[in-house]
Amino acid sequence: MTSSFCIPYYGVWIESLCIAKYGRIDILINNVGRSEPGGPAEMSEKTWDTQTDVNLKSVYLCCHHILPLMEKQGSGTVVNVASIAALRYVGKPQVAYSATKAAMIQFTKATAVIYAPKGVRLNVIVPGLMNTPLVGMLADKYAAGNLEGFKA
Q1: In terms of residue numbers, what domain contains 87?
Q2: pTM of the model
Q3: Is residue 114 part of a domain?
Q4: Record's superkingdom (predicted)?
Q5: Which residues are the active-site residues?
Q6: Which of 3, 30, 113, 120 lies 20 to 30 angstroms, CA to CA, from 77?
């Protein structure tokens, strides 16, 4: 469900399925990401908007629908998965991905302060680059095959 048509309804869908089956929602994990190459000068506005919708707006919409339920329950946990690209350049031009993952970190911090007194915890995980076939392909493309230098 990554199209801009589906994203607005995703939180409602999660809410209705979980409540129907379990009667409550104890945890929400927002682990989503889409990365298209490009800096601000060459990236199209459509690409920027799509990445913003997928990487950030989806987190907002899921929280928008789920946090009130967790607040009503008096408990719950939200885990948002950002990226090391939010904190540093990772060897490839991906300004929209980096910006949205950085925004996710701040979204999580601010929302955690708001919901802590209500019994709801929010945390953000910032994984680094891991030795996967995808990272190897990216090192070939952006770092002349220097995997160790790319991951550093």
Answers
A1: 7-151
A2: 0.83
A3: yes
A4: Eukaryota
A5: 97
A6: 3
